[in-house]
Amino acid sequence: MKKFEIKTSSKLYPVYYESGLFQKLNLLIAKHDLKQNTFIIIDQNVYKYHNEKIDSFISRLNVKVCLYSINPSEINKSHTQLNDIYSALIENGFGRDTLIVAIGGGITGDIAGFAASTFSRGVNIIHVPTTLLAMVDSSIGGKTGINFESTKNIIGTFYQPDFVLIDTDFLKTLPEEEFICGLGEVIKYSLLIGNGFLKEIKKSLSKSLKLDKKLLLDSIDTCIKFKSGIVEKDEKELNGLRKVLNLGHTFAHAIEVERGHTIKHGQSVIIGLTCSLYLSKKLGILNEKLFKEYLSLFLLAKEKIRLPFFYPVKIYEIMKRDKKAANNKLKFVLLKEAGNILIDVEASKHLVLDSINEGLNHFIVD
């Protein structure tokens, strides 16, 4: 069992990861002295495929247990879903002595984390990410949140878990679409990190859109360690360092909303990163050679992400509501080269619109 500790200003906690690790969850709960009444928030699809191991985990808990399943869609990442969770907690007699266990992808983790940070002014939580995207990114760092009206993640908190448990066996039942979503985040990290990690990812993707078992584990390990290093220095995005993790996301979040959440977050991240490359080039930040090299990585997935149409001006207007906007000005995270990221870059409206048009055109159905 691999273990890596994350030390933030608010909490020190470990991330455990290896194949088959979920069967040790009971032991880890006891090790961390978290034998409390347990409220499990689980992606209904995960329970469908892994009910035996989930039920086995529950049967070994000598405390009150409630299993609460959710349909993990962006539409359900809302106050309505959150209120249902609060109601279930109260109706089943849960209070301050509650441990929430979040089992699922990023949506499950975000809403469970927000519930944990606010119920009874804060209760314990463990994250068990079951998608590649959640394993390499969203389960790490303590960001929680829900969507409100037409703005993504606008309501939320920073709330660190007691520990994170990553069992790569959950990926065996992950649909290809979800794996591609996670792959987009892995490519993002390869551009943030650069060096050998980028070369390994490029080499693997030149053969197929899959990562072999060793590279998969190495990717999870590399992404966790990189993100934790950022989070430790800028837990709540106060000094700007954590902003580098938002590469491509200003575009991506707006595209998700413009699409009415009919495409997944990871898919929109791939499109958003493509738009970011175009804007980086148009501003003279990224040279033509590197632009083509990096763009080719994202275009490997274009047959898996197809859009019938899009509205650039609408996307731009949605972007203006982004949390990172200041004084009604959009701020972008852009790429000079792998490992060299610029934050808070401003750009004219016409360059942003051109980047949206050129980026999204790669994903339009012919």
How would you describe this protein?
The protein is α/β, with parallel strands linked by helices. It has two domains: 2-173, Rossmann fold, CATH 3.40.50.1970; 176-361, Dehydroquinate synthase-like - alpha domain (Dehydroquinate synthase-like, alpha domain). Helix content is 46%, strand content 17%. It is built from 13 helices and eleven strands. It has helices at residues 25-31, 44-59, 79-91, 106-118, 132-138, 176-193, 195-205, 213-233, 249-258, 265-282, 288-299, 312-319, 349-361; strands spanning 2-7, 12-18, 37-43, 65-70, 98-104, 124-129, 146-148, 151-155, 163-167, 332-337, 340-345. The strands form three sheets. Strands 1-2-9-6-5-3-4 form a seven-stranded mixed β-sheet. A two-stranded antiparallel ribbon has the order 7-8. Helix 3 crosses helix 4 (106-118) and helix 6 runs parallel beside helix 10. The protein is globular and about 60 Å long. The model has no long low-confidence stretch (mean pLDDT 94).
Give me the strand/helix succession: EEHEHEHEHEHEEEHHHHHHHEEH
Question: What's the CATH topology label of the largest domain?
Answer: Dehydroquinate synthase-like, alpha domain
Roughly what is the average pLDDT, rounded to an integer?
94
**Alpha-carbon distance between the two ends:** 47 Å
Q: What coarse outline follows from CA principal-axis ratios?
A: globular
Strand arrangement, major sheet:
1-2-9-6-5-3-4
- Number of separate domains: 2
**DSSP strand tally:** 11
Describe the largest sheet. 7 strands, mixed
Structural class: alpha/beta
